[in-house]
Amino acid sequence: MSPFEHGEVYVLDDGGEVDLDLGNYERFLDIKLTRDNNITTGKVYQSVIDKERRGDYLGKTVQVVPHISDAIQDWIERAAAVPVDGKDGPPDVCVIELGGTIGDIESMPFIEALGQFSLRVGAGNFCLIHVSLVPVLSVVGEQKTKPTQHSVRGLRSLGLAPNILACRSTTELDENVKEKLSRFCHVQIENIITLYDVSNIWRVPLLLKEQKAHEAILKVLNLNGKTREPALGEWTSRADLCDRLVEPIRVAMVGKYTGLSDSYLSVLKALLHASVACHRKLCIDWVPASDLEDTTMEENPESYKNAWKLLKGADAILVPGGFGDRGVEGKILAAKYARENRIPYLGICLGMQIAVIEFARSVLGLHDANSTEFDPNTRNPCVIFMPEGSKTHMGGTMRLGSRRTYFQGTSSKSSKLYGSRSFIDERHRHRYEVNPDMVEQFEDSGFSFTGKDESGRRMEIIELPNHPYFVGVQFHPEFKSRPGRPSALFLGLVAAGSGQLDAVLKKGTVKSPCRMSNGSSHLYDNATTTLANGALSGIYCNGNGLHV
Q: Degrees (nearest 5) of the Cα angle 7, 13, 16?
């Protein structure tokens, strides 16, 4: 999938490649989803075709209704019965997100299926929350209800009636606007929730609680009296901390898809979690990798100058994953700058391979060293195609999902950041790997491979021991980072960039625990590292950066 079109591809533990929305659910709710939690049109139609080929329908005509709609309902019920929070027993409530816009042809089978589903399970077992935009005309400041009225009308015409309206707007809805929506949309006024702009994302649950959104949902589902009052002391503390952060940490993000921040959403969130743990306000400088190259200096000197200015002004440098050869030479230059100038560096997937290529060229003297992905005929292939990979089929043929990495000793920075454990499980998504036949040559020149797979031939973590913080990983640690438990390697990068790495490695403590509204202290454990609680939703970007 193109990152420019879809944003990042989020990878689950079981190897499922899914939409970035599932990543938001995993981070926000601290749960572990599976590929079956991602229901797509292609999956549903394929399952129905497979059934037809097996003869399950006994030669009957296969139609959208009932066969496709039934398949969707069966999938929902099957996925809803699987626990995702690590506890035994089926979940009490299943959240279904039906994306898109009312009227889209792509979502029609799903809307029909949910209409049938709501009728089948009956009142009290199905709550429909319709999310709609209430735009505000900037000239007069008037809140317009017509888009919501029309979308509800379209929803009703398709057999679904909303129980609750969640109205997204820049400002809080006026009472007369709520009354108007209640009258024309046939929704009780107390079930109309306004989701207006707040200072950071952690204030959204507080906003929902203030408007008693949870009580409206529980009432529709007949769960009143069976739940406890939401304990949001932690959320309140986190939201307050977000607004108080002042001292910045500047991270240069050197990538290929810098025009769309969603392409690196999980990386941004992981940086966010780590920066708050270090009590720093995250500032991202987006550096298009190709702008660092000599060709840009000739064709667009201003872009070249700006890119290098951002790179040289950063406290830390991060090169995320990617595919294709565009911008690769710029990423190699960024890794070289970080290595030679002792700037904290973290390379993820391709970012690790880039560091290997740069070291081979600059230190080993192999000037034509490259990855076979970019130069199949290179005489010094320090990164090669995985033996088990497929060169004819692109989809789902990579090394995917949670894989185990074994540390080669406990003295490395990465091992200490993970709590000196013997192994870790992280998520992967790659086709190429470091050439195992060249490992000894690298190690003889001071290049350390501190993490390997169970066979010992697949390199997972690289480090430069004499550098303040120069780490590359073949896996994607950003996918398992959580607000209260930042990824160890992202924490190391931000701590190194803010002068706190020694404290993290020696004492295992960053700042002091965050004081909760009820007066108690909450500590979050990441291996043996005690972190200050909190998270930040505002990422401040300067230079040619984007605001997200």
A: 50
In the predicted model, is pLDDT for residue 513 greater than 50?
A: no
Distances in Å between the Cα of 362 and the Cα atoms of 332, 366, 379, 490 are 10, 7, 16, 26
Contacts of 449 (CB under 8 A, 6+ apart): 408, 434, 439, 442, 443, 459, 460, 461, 462
Integer Cα distance of 318 and 335 in angstroms: 9
What average pLDDT does range 404-420 have in this prediction?
93
Residue 478: active-site member: yes
Closest among 71, 87, 82 to 33, alpha carbons compared: 82
Both tokens assigned to 466: 């004499």
Cα torsion through 266, 271, 272, 275, rounded to 10: 170
Enumerate the β-bridge partners of residue 401.
Answer: 428
Structure confidence by residue, pLDDT tens digits, 59-110: 899 999 999 999 999 999 999 999 999 888 889 899 999 988 888 899 999 9
Catalytic residue among 349, 382, 514, 541: 349
Provide mean pLDDT across the span 491-509.
Answer: 88
299 in active site: no
Burial tier of 51 (Cβ tally within 10 Å: 0-12, 13-18, 19+) = middle
Give pLDDT, residue 344. Answer: 97
In tens, the pLDDT along 354-389 reads: 999 999 999 999 999 999 999 999 999 999 998 776
The residues, ordered by sequence, that sit 6+ positions from 141 with a Cβ below 8 Å of its Cβ are: 171
Which one from 167, 273, 476, 514 is the annotated catalytic residue?
476
Catalytic site residue 454?
Answer: no
Which residues have CB under 8 Å from 104's CB, separation 6+? none
Tell me how many degrees the CA angle 541-542-547 measures, rounded to the nearest 5. Answer: 35
- Given a contact cutoff of 8 angstroms between Cβ atoms, the answer to whether 37 and 22 are in contact is yes
- Give long-range contacts, CB 8 A cutoff, 24+ apart: 443-452: 445/359, 445/363, 445/364, 446/363, 447/356, 447/359, 447/363, 448/412, 449/408, 450/407, 450/408, 450/409, 450/412, 450/414, 450/415, 451/405, 451/406, 451/407, 451/408, 451/414, 451/424, 452/405, 452/406, 452/408
Q: Across all residues in the chain, what is the average pLDDT? A: 88
Catalytic pick among 373, 478, 514, 541: 478
Q: pLDDT (tens digit, 9 = 90+) per residue, 231-248?
A: 888 878 878 888 899 999
Q: What is the pLDDT of residue 533?
A: 32
| Token digits of residue 407 | 């540390």
pLDDT band at residue 535 using 50, 70 and 90 as cut-offs: very low
**Following CA atoms 369, 371, 374, 376 in sequence, which dihedral angle do they give, to the nearest 10 degrees?**
90
Q: What is the pLDDT of residue 516?
A: 34
Segment (H or E) for 470:
strand 470-473
Enumerate the β-bridge partners of residue 402: 427
Residue labelled with tokens 């993970």: 418
User: Where do runs of H (alpha helix) occur along 344-394?
Assistant: 350-362
